[in-house]
Known about the structure:
It is a single chain. This protein is globular. A five-stranded mixed sheet has the order 2-1-5-3-4, with helices on both faces. The chain is built from six helices and five strands. Helix content is about 40%, strand content about 15%. The protein folds into two domains: about 1-80, Ubiquitin-like (UB roll) (Roll); about 80-159, Orthogonal Bundle (DNA polymerase, domain 1), CATH 1.10.150. By secondary structure, it is an alpha+beta fold.
Amino acid sequence: MKIELKVNGEAREVEASPVARLLxxxxxxxxxxxxxxxxxxxxxxxCTVLIDGKAVNSCLVPAAQAVGHELTTIEGLAASRNxxxxxxxxQILVELGGTQCGICTPGIALCATAVLEQESNPSRERIRELxxxxxxxxxxxxxxxxxxxxxIERRGAAK
Length: 159
């Protein structure tokens, strides 16, 4: 069936089963390959996208369930935040070494963005709790937490 999605501010129409995973529709039909598949079970967060600003595991969402909602993938994150190329979250993750192999990075950047929209000044412990659905085997998490804390600090200094 035809499924109409709004992805990164753009209307997209695909021919897919209504129960096809949103992850597969994004990667295979729309060709937005920044969203990664890790576990396929909603445990690792590599496939995180934003639906109406909320972080969700796209491997668990039927594509038809996303109809009528605003989807943001890593490819559209900067544009959706009026950033030129990358957002402050993406830039600081790179600056502080919160990225390594890159499989988890898109999901972490999207999750951190959603987290900071919900809570503007979480503690380091709270940052860890909020990002707990994102697994990373390369960084050991400390650099990711440092990066999110740095985003908070820089945003506070900019006010």
